Write the structure tokens for this entry.
Amino acid sequence: MPRLFFAIDLPNELKDVLAPRALALRDLGRHIRPAGRHGFHLTLLFLGDQPESSIPDFGEIAKSAVGPARSSEIALGPVGFFPRVSFLTLTGELETLAMVSSVLKIGCESYLERPDTRPFKAHVTLARHKKNVDRTEKERITREFAEFEGRSWVVSDLVLYESELTPKGAVYTVVERYAFGG
């Protein structure tokens, strides 16, 4: 069964400049696992393991979510932290993405083992940490990524990804793209 999620992709140019900086976070210790170029995206809904036969249903739900959506300009914001995750916040026209996320959650609820009740928090993961992020790490990560704050792009589609877990990390494959307003 494929492991699936809906996300907003970052432009390749942005991934290209973020990736080496994120990989350099390994200098902080073996307890840090950088996202890497392939991992830079904004997850809107994690679906988990799903039967392949459900993919067309997810496609219809995605189309209903993005049909009324308009392209939106978003930008990288300051670095933020969850206890074991460092990330870049996102700013800009997030209302559209929050609406798409909400429609996806409602439409996919019956397919999920546990409904996702967390509020929408727009962010792009930089690294996962095996222990809580300490003050020194926060300061270094914040410094390393400050120059990217304000870099913007226009979001115009939603992506359904398959995530294959491997010993070297997740491998993401695009299953389908759904254009906003279409």
Observations:
- Residues 3-179 form a domain with the Cyclic Phosphodiesterase; Chain: A, fold (CATH 3.90.1140.10).
- Residues 79 and 88 are 4 Å apart (CA to CA).
- The helical segments are 12-23, 55-66, 95-108, 135-145.
